[in-house]
Amino acid sequence: MKRIYVCISIVLLACLTIGCLDDAPSTVTYVEPITSMEDGRDGVVVGVGAPAEMTTFVKQPPDDMMWITPAKVKIGNLYAGARAEWTLRLHNGNNVQTKYAVVVRNPDNTITGYSKATDTEKSWVVISDQAPVLAPRETRDILIAVDVPLRAKVNSKNWEFWVSAMDAQQKGQIVTELCSRWNVDMR
Amino acid sequence: MRKFQIRSILGILLAVGMFVSISLPAFAATTQDVTVTATPTFLAIANAPATYNFGVVAASSTPATAQAHFTITNGSSVPTNIAIAAVTANWTGGVGWIHDDTGAGAAADTAGLKSSNNTGAYNIAVKNAAPNNITSNLPVASNCTWELKLYAPSSFADGALKTMVVRLTVTASP
Fold first, then answer.
1. Continuous segment of H or E residues that includes residue A83
2. CA–CA separation, B84 vs A70, rounded Å?
3. At B59, which CATH number?
4. Most buried residue among A121, B21, B36, B116 by CB atoms closer than 10 A?
5. Residue in B2, B42, B128 to test binding to A, most A beta-carbons within 10 Å
């Protein structure tokens, strides 16, 4: 009889526990997102890095200059086995077809509380097209993904990397580079 | 007997309840989603002129551009930092000069570069590693002018033309 009571108690508590897990609050918080959506897989959020219409910009980007958007991206709650994606929008302000170099690189400096990405962490960053060739005044989205391997060893909880975009055909001894800051918070 | 059964059940309930309350946050974390957020801001700068030739330089000389010789046109929508860097650790051409990150140069085949943002002070070393900002928190719609000074080597192994590429990197201010 005693055993039956014990078994019933355990089963009831197990059911209660599962019920609680199902109802656990999800903490998806989008701070001023451009657009974003979940793709249905657990822990995967796919964002679209720039709006189709530029009306959300307080200031319109110049058509005759190279520009990138967004300037800052924040990835939160990332963990081993998860993937986060966002797109970097690149504009060619030249009147000629131009080849660009889009690469991940170490930051020269970081936001307070973040460490510079290690080589291992940088290896998790995937850029869909590292040498895009843009037509005159063309604007193109380039997918940037942070794909953390399932068995990855997390060295730092908060780390930063930069995505650099440069006109690969710049002439002269003084060149310009545009860098988007990516701040990653690991779970 | 009945009292014993009730006590047993209560004991078990208490133990399992404590276990669940302790472990629940950890389990709950597995259902949280990765978040990706960004604000609709853009970065855009252009620099002109894109070249400068110091001409024939004497040993240990310090030729410089005029103040505000260069202009960075800023089309960004957020306040920015602009860093100035020597792209490589050595100058190219003939016996390449070593680039001195202190900016001082003035050693055999070792040169330095210093810049400033329209102050004429030439006090910002142009470094290959850990670049300095030539301007910080540059406001939206504000351009930036700057100048450059060469600190020539104390002696040269050859008279070949030397070249260094200087990179201006814009990021959103932290």
1. strand A83-91
2. 22
3. 2.60.40
4. B36
5. B42
Domain count, chain B: 1
- How many Å separate Cα A130 from the centre of its chain? 16
Q: With beta carbons less than 8 A apart as the criterion, state whether B40 and A35 touch.
A: no
- Stretch B118-134: mean pLDDT: 96
Predicted local distance difference test score (pLDDT) of residue A30: 33
The token duo for B61 is 């000389």
Q: A110 touching B, CB under 8 A?
A: yes
Tell me if A26 and B31 make a contact (CB, 8 A cut-off).
yes
Range of the structural domain that residue B132 is part of: 45-172
Q: Mark residue A8 as left, alpha or beta (left: phi above 0; alpha: psi -120 to 50; beta: remaining).
A: alpha
Residues of chain B found within 8 Å of residue A69, distances taken between Cβ atoms: 40-43
Residues with Cβ within 8 Å of residue A120, at least 6 apart in sequence: A152, A153, A155
**Do the bridges between strand A174-186 and strand A72-78 make them parallel or antiparallel, or are there none, so unpaired?**
parallel
Highest mean pLDDT among A18-27, A151-160, B65-74: B65-74
Structure tokens at B5: 């059964």
In this structure, which topology does domain A30-186 adopt according to CATH? Immunoglobulin-like (2.60.40)
Q: Are the Cβ atoms of A175 and B45 closer than 8 angstroms?
A: no
> At residue B146, what is the residue type?
W
Residue A15 has pLDDT above 90, yes or no: no
> Mean pLDDT lowest for which of A3-7, A14-18, A169-173, B99-103?
A14-18
Domain residue spans in chain A?
Answer: 30-186
At B114, is the secondary structure helix, strand, or coil? Answer: strand
**CB environment A131-169: b (16+ within 10 A), e (fewer):** ebebeeeebbbbebbbebeeebeeeeeebbbbbbbbbee
Contacts of B37 in chain A (CB under 8 A): 29-33, 36, 47, 73-74, 76
Structure-block tokens of residue B24? 């629940």
Q: Residue B10: helix, strand or coil by DSSP?
A: helix
CA-to-CA distance for B51 and B161, rounded, in angstroms? 14
